[in-house]
Amino acid sequence: MDEYVLDFVIPAGETGPNPPLCYIDYNTTTNAKRLSIKGTKIFHSNNDFTVNADNSLTIIPGTYEITFCGKIECNGNFQRDITVSLHEILGGGISQPVEGMSIVLSPGMSYIHFSETRILTFPDPEDIFVLISNNNTEPVTVSMGSLILRKIS
């Protein structure tokens, strides 16, 4: 039987940085405007993230790496694009899509798996949520939806 010796040094000192991180898991949603939050996990946060009762998330100013993923399905013969996007609330009942965080299911497609990652800076506190835009009569389902936000600075 051969004997092996492990000869290495375990570094001593402080561990690396652990940036604030928020993971949101969404319920499977059919024919609703907003995705509803199923569960959240927040790590290393000092009030960087606040989950609200209206299925929105409040974030403090900063730069974030944001990953948005899931699946969009529509089993019918729809005529207009179906869009699922991360929105920021502007106030007065108005919102707008967050730059680069919109996914489109085009006519002729029955489903799409999606994943988008962007690095975005928010100079002010923001309330964000996921909105489904469907101007068709056919039902649309969004499943396996997740949003991951990592505060970079």
What low-confidence regions span 5 or more consecutive residues with pLDDT below 50?
Answer: none
Please indicate the count of domains.
Answer: 1
Order of helices and strands: EEEEEEEEEEE
Largest sheet properties: 6 strands, antiparallel
Q: Return Rg in Å.
A: 20 Å
Please provide a written account of the structure.
The chain has strands spanning 21-26, 29-30, 37-43, 49-51, 57-59, 62-73, 82-91, 94-105, 111-122, 126-134, 141-151. Helix content is 0%, strand content 57%. By secondary structure, the chain is mainly beta. Strands 1, 2, 3, 6, 9 and 11 form a six-stranded antiparallel beta sheet that branches. Strands 4-5-10-7-8 form a five-stranded antiparallel beta sheet, with no helix packed on it.
What are the main properties of this structure?
mainly beta, six-stranded antiparallel beta sheet, 11 strands, globular
Write the layout of secondary structure elements.
Layout lengths: L20 E6 L2 E2 L6 E7 L5 E3 L5 E3 L2 E12 L8 E10 L2 E12 L5 E12 L3 E9 L6 E11 L2
Antiparallel strand pairs: 1-3, 1-11, 2-11, 4-5, 5-10, 6-9, 6-11, 7-8, 7-10
Quick recap of the structure?
The protein is mainly beta and 153 residues long. 0% of the residues lie in helices and 57% in strands.
